[in-house]
Amino acid sequence: MEIHHPQNVAELCDIIAAAPQPLSVLGGGTRPIGQSSARCGLSTDLMSGIVTYEPGAMTLVAKSGTSVAEIEAALDLENQCLAFEPMDHRDLLGTQGIPTLGGIIAANVSGPRRIQVGAARDFTLGVSFVDGAGQLLKNGGRVMKNVTGYDLVKLLVGSWGTLGVLTEVSLKVLPKAETESTLRIATQGWEKAVECMSAVLRTPYDVSGVGTVLNVNGGKDVMIRIEGFVASVRYRVSQLTQRLVHFGDITEIESPWHEMRNLTAWKSMDTVWRVSLRPTNSLKLLKVLEASDIKLQYQMDWGGGLIWLGLDDENKQRAENTATLHAIIQEQLTALGGHATLMKSASLTDMLVPSFQPQTPTLNKLMVDLRHKFDPRGILNPGRMY
Q1: What is the pLDDT of residues 296-330, one digit of tens each?
Q2: Stated pTM of the model
Q3: In 22-81, where do the E strands start and end?
C-alpha cells in the first residue's frame, strides 16, 4: 500500500483535497482495528512535536503525530501524567509502530483509571483537523472552560478518522499520585468477583482501578488500586481490607496495572473482543457465553463495565465458525445495551464481518448523515466503522 506522509497541515490539506481514491488514515500504525477498504494510506507520523506545555495550567498542546512516549517524558519532568493512561495495543495486536497522540484520541483509548477520572474524551480540550474536503477546522481551546458552540471535540474523539484527520490536540493533564497500592482478593466464581467489585465501588475510598484476572487455581482475583498521598492510601487500604475480608484472602502486591491495561498475557490469543456494557449486565453476558461449549478467556475492568473476551488456538478448533460466535456476541450485546469490538482475529482476517457493533437504524442514519457532512466523498477510512 502506498502511504502518504505529509509534513505539515498544508500538505495534508492538499493530499486530501486532491485524493482520487479513499485513504486509510493512520497514526503510528499500532491499532489496525476494523477493515478499511482504502488501498492508499495517509499517516500523520511526521506531523509531530509538542506545541505548548503549561504545567501550572495543567494543559498541553501537541501535533497529532507526536509519540505518546515523548508526551509522557515531558509530563514526567513536571510530575504530571496523562491520567486516562492510554492502552498500548502493540503486545495484544503484535504491531510494531509507535503510539501517537492522534491515534489515542481518534480511538478514545483509555485505561483502568477511567473508572475514577474519565476517558481520553474527558481530557480533550480542543482539536484541529482536516475534513474530507481538505479544509482545516478547529474546535475547543487550550483552557478547561470554553464556550465553543457545537462540541466537535467530543464528536471527533472516538471517530477513528472517519470524520477528519486530526492535526493538533489540546489536553488537560493531572499531577501524578504520590504513591499507590494494589490489593488482590482471591474470589471464587464470577458472581463473587462482580459482587466484590460492586462492593468496592460503593465505598467512599476513591479507588482508581478495579478489575479481575484469572489465578493459577482457576479462581478470579479482584484487583483494587488505591492512589494518592501516603497517609491517605494507607488509611484507605486498611479500611478496604476490613470491609472486604469476607470475599476471600487479601494480599498487597506489586502493581499489575501495566500488564492488565495492555493485556500483555493475551498476545497469543487467536481472537479478542473488547466488550463495553453496564456492570450490572456483565454476569448476564457471561452466563450466556459460558453455556456454550466454547471456552473463552475473560478479564474485567472498570468494575465489569469493560470485559475482554479471548479465544485461544486450542479452543478455536472447537469453534466451528468463529464468525457465528462473533455474531452471537454482538447480538447479545445489542440486547443488553452494550457493544463489542473485534480487536483481532486470525480466523476472521479475510472475512467481511463488522468489527464494530452494528448500530440501530436510527443511530446508523445519524452517523451516515454526520459523515456525509464532514466527508461528502466518503474517502476517509471507508469501512473502518461501518
Answers
A1: 899 999 988 999 999 887 766 655 578 888 888 99
A2: 0.92
A3: 23-26, 40-43, 50-54, 59-63, 80-81
